[in-house]
Write a structure and sequence with these properties.
- The chain is mainly alpha-helical.
- The protein has one domain (about 1-100).
- The protein has 4 helices and no strands.
- The longest helix has 25 residues, at about 45-70.
Length: about 110
């Protein structure tokens, strides 16, 4: 969903489309256009790297979006559905991080 949103924003708003935001936040959100699909690709091909990148993205994205919710959009955090869903996903990522970072276990034909 994040990738779709950022691509749509780039199509409608051009490069660095979040002009209402500070430059660093604008650059961060624009960078997610590439980082989000990279995390997905890595989850499929290099799970440990994908899990690490996903954790880094979520640990940075939730605070950035919370800050934007409070300062740029002046919306109570509990009324920002996107932020609530991202926060729930962050909790999921944190809860599964250790398990998913383990090396892949492959079936070798033995019980």
């Amino acid at each position: 969903m994040g990738t779709y949103t950022h691509i749509a924003d780039l199509i409608t708003g051009g490069w660095l489309p979040y002009r209402y935001a500070p430059a660093g936040m604008n650059a961060y959100w624009t960078a997610l256009t590439c980082l989000d699909p990279l995390a997905i690709l890595l989850l499929w091909t290099r799970r440990r790297w994908g899990v690490a990148l996903t954790l880094i993205i979520m640990l940075s994205d939730v605070p950035v979006n919370l800050y934007a919710t409070l300062t740029l959009w002046d919306v109570p955090p509990l009324e920002n559905t996107g932020l609530l869903l991202q926060s729930a996903f962050l909790i999921f990522v944190l809860g599964t991080f250790r398990h998913l970072r383990k090396p892949d276990v492959r079936w070798n034909g033995r019980p």
